[in-house]
Fold these 4 entries.
Entry 1:
Amino acid sequence: MKKSATRVFFLALLMVLPAVAGPGVLDLRAQGGKSKKDKEKKEPAPTQVTTIAVKPAVEDPNYVIGEEDSLSISVWKEPDLSRSVPVRPDGKISLPLLNDVQASGLTPMQLADLITEKLRKFVADPQVTVIVNSIQSRRFFVLGEVGRVGSYPLLHGMTLLQALSGAGGFTQFANPKKIYLMRTENGKQVRYLFNYKDALKGKNPEQNIEIKPGDTIVVP
């Protein structure tokens, strides 16, 4: 008899307790006996942001700066003197305190040394870094029966076959066996023949010459 009364009392207590204690008390009936720890939601892991350093457009220290190239001039601890500048058609750049400085025809290191020497009149122990941001002076041209005619930036060591790969393919009227490259050498125009199909087969590798600035590739 005592066990029955105890059971009735316990059931009544479970029914009354949530109403009396309020929502802060864990309702064992609704939760199915699960603990608070089991019900907690895991917070998503924070997204990791990877910072990628901006690389110069030219890794070759012997690269010669040309007209219309874009340069980044950095003077250590002198933010007012540091900036990105284009090389003008006359081959010069404009900088604070120095006005016009000849850039075309120099390597980035040579230009940095020149700016350093000129800044000694105004800044104590200047430290200058020159980076080529984009190459506009080194370009070649593709004409004729290709998907995209026009001028293209010349990358270091680019060959004729590589140059054609970015021109959008040939049209249905193209003759890839009779492609030629025109180049000005010693004031005269020279023509180099190129058989695209042979190049794909590894034949006549001497025809796959390295492109130079100003070259024009013609696909008849």
Note: The radius of gyration is 36 Å.
Entry 2:
Amino acid sequence: MRRKTALITGASRGLGKSLALVFSSNGYNIILHGRDEGRLNSVRQEVLKSKVDCYVVIGDITEEQTIINLTNCAEKADIDILINNAGVYFQKPVDETSPYELKNLLNVNLLSPILLTKGIFEIFKKKSSGLIININSVAGKSFGQLESAYCASKHGLRGFMGSFQFEALKYNVPIINIYSGAMSTDMTAERGDTEKFIRTEEAARFIFEMSRDYSSMRISEIDIFRKIY
């Protein structure tokens, strides 16, 4: 049987790494993306233990060439699933937020996944199949103090993907949006109570189950909250 292929952005650590290991252990070829070559190669070595193919694309997700490289690799590997996981967290008063910080945040969390999705969708259209999974945040549905810019980026992603799904479904390409609460990653380490946060390994296993091709239903939005507060 032909192996399916999953592309995971921001896969050098945290949830992205956990997703790569779960999907590869279930027989998926993997395309890893990230900026840290050393960490990506380390993840690649773990993925290869599952006897699957593993490709690495290194680059800043906000750069056009990185999007091009990812799209080209995805086409060659005959991609089946795109997981938009790369993102940054930002918490700061608006009057202290510089134009550069705001633009960078929107580029990483909003514009980059839109542009990558646009490129990958052209591949899915030719196949009349595919799946797009967006790792969003509960901030994409709610509001948080000192999170104005961050919430804007996540609300924007929800708005785009929620509307785009109607175009994608015409080509048998469902979109699953994951809205996650605090997860135990490097981004949340400074908060100090990470032992109460969602474990990436557990979240990755759940997301994999959501990615299955069900015969009579599709999943649109999933909220994941931590159990302990």
Note: The beta strands are 5-8, 29-34, 54-58, 81-84, 131-137, 175-180, 221-224.
Entry 3:
Amino acid sequence: AASDIVMEFAPNEDREHQLSMLRVELDMADGPVSLEKGIGWATPHQWQAFHDTLLAYGGISRAIDVNTAFTDKILQGVYRNGQLVWP
């Protein structure tokens, strides 16, 4: 259903590309890591998968070292003992 909505507003997009990105994003948003550690958390492996999808479909023009772009520093600052600290 989500890809149908995207295709409605961006009919020239590649449906398979949209589905691939959605799968990676869902895994990062509501996968085992976020269930264990909280919303927003992801592993370097997940970021690498996202990078690879973007590279394969032209979302980025060249490969980069994901470890230079990925950090969980902000998340470490907003979680205490596994609990989100919110104002």
Note: Helices lie at 2-9, 15-30, 32-37, 44-56, 73-78.
Entry 4:
Amino acid sequence: MSTPIYIILAEDDTDDAFLFNEAIDELSLAVDLTIVSDGERLMQSLTDENIQLPDVIFLDINMPRKNGLECLSEIRVNNRLHSLPVIIFSTSFDEEIVSQLYINGADYYIQKPSGFEALKNVIHLALNLISEKNQLQPPKDSFVLTDKKAKMTLR
């Protein structure tokens, strides 16, 4: 049996967190999922030297107490955390913000899809890409992950 992928989902919307968890369950992957409801809790858990770091973080942008952009900036300047894969997982899609997230070092951007199958597809694609990652940020034209890209890639 393979080692589970350790994922932290930073998401304040309980419905979105539930759907993410359900999508992970249906992917039949070995996953250990931790959900935190705000950016402060995320950063507290990541900076606790006694806690295992995740293999990947799915990070919502609009969260209370500390937003995703602030968390991403803190992660990228922290020597212990800077190489952690961070996938932005957000309802909104503002091209300026997406560009800023790319510049600040996010690995991928997923606009939360409206359908459950699409959600499963983009999460599966993101996990595949992170597992193949060679520590280089993808080209900007590959930064935004969509259900359409997932369907083409996962065939």
Note: The first helix runs from residue 14 to 26.
